[in-house]
Amino acid sequence: MAIEHDFFGILASGPDGSIFWSETVEFGDQAVSVDLTAPDETDVSPDALNIAAAMITQLEAVDLNCREAMVAQLSDRTSEVTEYVLQQQEQLGDDIEEFLTIVSGDMAIDIIRAMRLMSVTILADEHGGAEPFLVLEYALDPDAADDVLLVNLSSDGTVLSVTSAE
What is the CA radius of gyration of the chain? Predict the structure, then answer.
């Protein structure tokens, strides 16, 4: 079987019933990998695909929402965001300024501002559920694959959590 959608085109299911779509989208001055996946196409509703398409086309607003959520966690010294910022400062030392786009004097804000959106994963079968519908992966150093923060959003765009990939 297959699902047809105006934005995604034809989403053919594999032999196990799963669907997968992948595309690289331009975001600012960078290319971002966007994947849509579901283990069973029967769990994917037209509403889920419409919301996913809207989130992709409004990626700038989604990104801003995620970065605001990261900034909000800076006040908690035990948050994943605070730990990530401290880890990056420790690992990169004086070289950290090479990665920063703006140096304002607030290192934590500068790091969040400079982080690159690496990928977006849409878990299309999680529409309306308690599990993440959208997962955005951010990194300060794109070459450090293990040093990333994952921002998990519900299908209504609410940030559920910000976690490290470890």
Answer: 17
Q: In the Cβ-directed half-sphere of 59, how many Cα atoms lie within 13 Å?
A: 22
Alpha-carbon distances, residue 162 vs 79, 114, 146 (angstroms): 9, 17, 15
pTM: 0.92
- Cα–chain center distance at 158: 13
Instruction: Give me the domain span that covers residue 33.
Output: 2-164
**Domain count for the chain:** 1
Rounded mean pLDDT of the chain?
A: 92
Among 159, 133, 128, 130, which residue's Cα sits nearest to residue 53? Answer: 133
pLDDT reported for residue 85? 94
Distance between start and end Cα atoms, the chain? 36
Task: Give the percent of the chain with pLDDT over 70.
Answer: 98
